[in-house]
Design brief:
Blueprint (H helix, E strand, L loop, with lengths): L1 H7 L7 H11 L3 H11 L3 H10 L1 H4 L16 H8 L8 H25 L6 H15 L3 E4 L4 E6 L2 E6 L4 E2 L3 H5 L4 H10 L13 H7 L17 H18 L1
Antiparallel strand pairs: 1-2, 2-3, 3-4
Helix pairs in contact: 2-3, 7-11, 8-10
The structure holds zinc ion.
Length: about 240
């Protein structure tokens, strides 16, 4: 989105509008988003362009579901950029390239997951959670009732609700990974903080996702074609011949 915006309005790399866009996109709270987006509204055209693209597609504050810590608006574009070199090939070769790519991805990711010793994937949760745990040691907790807690974070208070799995700053519910306020509440209650993270961040889910082996397609001479498939093919060939006649 940032690239499209830069290209459409011919913005310089250091244009402030790009900085405001990044700040708005990364804001979890609506009020923080509004604060940054207001600065973009100084340029009507850019603001309208971003609004018409759909705020829910690029802003964390407006997403209509859980985005975890991944922000992509179009998975097809991501795949396109990886396959740009193969797009000119005939379709059979393109499919071969896609299979080769998947073979490499699955094998590499499976190796990483097998070597991983942490509870969460290192780059998708573990490092982030550990950094948050360090910050959490400097905060205080006030118990409101058995499920609600107030966390004093600098000069701002955050409200954590353990049953609803929410924090008033919204990081927790949007990422499904404990924020520093949830961390400090867990520490206060002697709860295992990792149990509050979505299973999608865990090493086990990572391992399961890549547990299957992608096999390359063997040369056609080695294919073992079931009889029912062969007979269907012959019937279709006969029909084609009849149509030509
Ligand atoms: Zn929080």
């Amino acid at each position: 989105m940032k690239g499209n915006m830069k290209h459409t309005f011919k913005l310089e790399k250091r244009d402030k509008l790009l900085l405001y866009f990044e700040q708005a996109a990364k804001s979890y709270g609506i009020s923080k988003f509004d604060h940054h987006f207001c600065k973009i509204k100084g340029n009507d055209e850019v603001a309208q362009y971003l609004e018409s693209a759909g705020l829910h597609k690029w802003s964390k504050a407006h997403i209509d579901g859980c985005r975890y810590n991944v922000m992509t608006t179009n998975i097809a574009e991501s795949i396109n950029s990886v396959l740009w070199f193969a797009r000119m090939l005939p379709v059979v070769h393109l499919i071969d390239e896609i299979i080769n790519l998947l073979v490499k991805w699955f094998s590499k990711s499976r190796d990483f997951a097998l070597k991983c010793t942490s509870t969460l994937c290192p780059d998708f949760g573990e490092k982030k959670l550990r950094r948050r745990l360090e910050c959490a040691s400097r905060m205080n907790v006030v118990k409101l009732n058995h499920v609600e807690y107030n966390v004093v974070d600098g000069d701002m208070d955050c409200h954590v609700h353990l049953t609803n799995n929410t924090c008033s700053r919204r990081n927790f519910q949007l990422e499904q990974l404990p924020c520093k306020h949830v961390d400090v509440v867990c520490r206060f209650l002697k709860l295992y903080v990792y149990s509050m993270a979505s299973r999608y961040y865990t090493r086990n889910t990572w391992l399961n996702a890549y547990s299957y082996t992608i096999n390359p397609v063997q040369p056609q001479e080695l294919w073992v074609i079931p009889e029912d498939v062969t007979s269907t093919k012959s019937e279709k060939d006969d029909q084609k011949k009849m149509t030509v006649l």
